[in-house]
Design brief:
Strand content: 35-45%
Structural class: alpha+beta
CATH class of the largest domain: Mainly Beta
Number of helices: 13
CATH superfamily of the largest domain: Nucleic acid-binding proteins
Length: about 600
């Protein structure tokens, strides 16, 4: 039969005997839904290689959609690209081997095959017991979990004799890429490539602390996190670049918002977790940190909050600056550095804490950063280092050596395209009319849109331009006047006898194509009016006419306005909100250059 030739006969028995078989092709003879209290839906498959069958094959839950969509059905022929063999213990039936299918591809749909191929028989072990019925003879040794991608090297006998055998099954080492939430007992041998400082948190549910570390072996990498008791237990004993045996713990789906490690899962240590140093082992067999570098020119097209690895030469470094966190109220140190690479692009990366204070960019070192987050501000992208980010200075890797040689041979007049510098109205800035921005539906997408426009200021709501705000330097919340000489800030949950004035202008701009209501906040409003909110507050209280004159002086003047457009929802109503980031008098030299360039472009004249 045509389909019978596709099946890799005999491979099912070999797999259940822990032999490594690459991409076996089998037939699904049955699908059964299994439900358990408090658990996700699971599907149990009856699979056949044409010679043997196994009724204890479980589909990984991330593949459930293949059944729900009708892609994976009875009689389908599938290629199993990744699997593991795990032992499950049932008090009434004893131990049984389960083949967990983690990745597979349907080669021929079930409705096309429409029948069972061959006459497959249940697998029988040496003692005459059917492996497929879920029981195993007492004399049968416990099988080793295997991955069909990596075979782990043998541990030296001196390690086994050190007394670890009673705690950790060192003969049963799992490669990292075989770990999944469907395993209860596992042991890995891995190198710790980084360890974060202990971090604390405090919320309504209580206080806590944690630290994370990234582990790597010959097969893959994975992040592990220890909370509270486990944090105290393991933090001091773990050393970066050392190799450890690690056994037991929870395996769960990784949160890709906080990591870009090449693994769908992550570890959480539990009270059952045991960690032992791996002595008498040639750790040169164990790889070091793995990077997945992204060129700087690609950062501008990636989603905000994406986690990326980058490498670049530090072209320059700014000074350390201090600021106060809006959430924790703690003082922070930051330093911005500019990185460049062979794509002739540059990006700003923000270092925090000790990484910022200890950094020396005077010799323009090569910097490799693992796990930086992409940020966006006013239309430009930058990178920010996280608590889990790893930064290496002049790492001994091929990419760093190649980058160093390239940068040292550059001519002095080379120019880089900065993706972290917002435009201030130069020739390449996107200029639109008010009507043009509306026709382009700017602000209707998931992200804010930025553009420039030449427009007249024709009206400002001066009577509501100022509001009383919390006097704390890191708070801008409007306070409630209690009419007893005190003011209450709901955000700070505090009362004070003082306040500060802040600006929020509602204004109308106009050009030859239409009008647009816009909002201007503190910095942009002070720049436009040429005074401070504090001085305006004094004038409003003491000299009302002079206060109004400040606004009237700017009326009907022509400005170069930098606008931000974004759809926002308030009180269940969604509307377009246009705010002005910067508003300044027109530089007619730049404006004329832009007009000349536009005329040449529209007329087809080469510039």
């Amino acid at each position: 039969m045509e389909y019978e030739k596709m099946l890799t006969k005999g491979t099912l028995l070999a797999i259940m005997n822990n032999e490594e078989i690459k991409d076996p092709i089998m037939q699904v003879l049955g699908v059964r839904k299994i439900t358990a209290a408090g658990a996700n839906e699971r599907y149990r498959l009856l699979i056949s290689d044409g010679q043997n069958l196994n009724s204890f094959a479980m589909l990984a839950t991330q593949l459930n959609s293949m059944i729900l969509s009708g892609e994976l059905t009875e009689f389908a022929i599938v290629k199993i690209k990744r699997h593991i063999i795990s032992n499950l213990t049932d008090r009434s039936k004893g131990s049984k081997q389960v083949m967990i299918l983690i990745d597979l591809v349907v080669m021929v749909p079930g409705n096309v095959v429409s029948s069972k191929i061959g006459d497959p028989k249940p697998i029988v072990d040496n003692s005459g017991h059917m492996v497929a019925n879920g029981t195993s003879a007492p004399a049968v040794a416990t099988p080793k979990p295997q991955s069909n991608s990596v075979k782990m090297p043998t541990v030296q006998s001196s390690v086994i004799n050190n007394g670890l055998q009673s705690v950790i099954d060192v003969d049963n080492i799992h490669p990292i890429n075989s770990l999944s939430p469907y395993q209860n007992k596992w042991t890995i041998r891995a190198r710790v490539v980084c360890k974060t400082p202990i971090r604390t948190w405090s919320n309504q549910r209580g206080d806590g602390k944690l630290f994370s570390m990234d582990l790597v072996d010959e097969s893959s990498e994975i992040r592990a996190t220890a909370f509270n008791n486990e944090c105290d237990k393991f933090f001091d004993m773990i050393e970066v670049n050392k190799v450890y045996f690690i056994t037991r713990g929870a395996i769960k789906t990784a949160n890709k918002k906080f990591t870009n490690l090449d693994n769908d899962y992550e570890l959480t240590f539990s009270s059952e977790t045991q960690i032992f140093p791996c002595h008498d082992f040639d750790d040169s067999q164990m790889p070091a940190m793995k990077f997945n570098f992204t060129q700087l020119s690609q950062v501008k097209d990636m989603d905000v909050d994406s986690i990326v690895d980058i490498i670049g030469v530090c072209q320059n470094a700014g000074d350390v600056t201090n600021l106060v966190s809006k959430t924790t109220r703690k003082e922070l140190q930051k330093r911005d550095v500019t990185l460049v690479d062979q794509s002739l692009s540059s990006v700003t990366a923000t270092l925090w804490g000790t990484q910022a204070t200890d950094f020396d960019g005077s010799l323009q070192p090569v910097i490799a950063i693992k796990g930086s987050r992409i940020r966006e501000f006013m239309g430009s992208k930058s990178l920010s280092l996280l608590g889990s980010t790893i930064m290496q200075i002049n790492p001994d890797i091929e990419e760093a050596h190649r980058l160093r040689g390239w940068y040292d041979s550059l001519p002095s007049n080379v120019e880089f395209n900065s993706i972290s510098t917002r435009s201030d109205g130069g020739i390449n800035t996107k200029f639109l009319t008010i009507k043009g921005a509306q026709l382009a539906q700017l602000g209707s997408g998931d992200k804010a849109d930025y553009y420039n426009m030449y427009s007249h200021l024709i009206f400002v709501k001066s009577e509501s331009a100022l509001y009383k705000a919390c006097p704390k330097p890191d708070c801008q919340k409007k306070v409630i006047d209690r009419n007893d000489g005190t003011y209450r800030c709901e955000k700070c949950n505090d009362e004070t006898e003082n306040f500060k004035y802040r600006l929020m202008l509602q204004a109308q701009l106009s050009d030859s194509t239409g009008n647009q209501w816009v909002t201007m906040f503190q910095e942009a409003a002070e720049t436009l009016l040429g005074t401070t909110s504090t001085e305006l507050g004094r004038l409003m209280e003491e000299a009302k006419e002079e206060y109004c004159d400040v606004f009237q002086k700017q009326m009907f003047k022509l400005f170069d306005a930098r606008a931000r457009a974004k759809m926002e929802t308030y009180n269940n109503e969604t509307r377009l909100k246009v705010s002005i980031v910067n508003m300044k008098p027109i530089d007619y030299k730049i404006a004329n250059e832009k007009l000349i360039a536009d005329i040449k472009r529209l007329s087809g004249i080469s510039t």
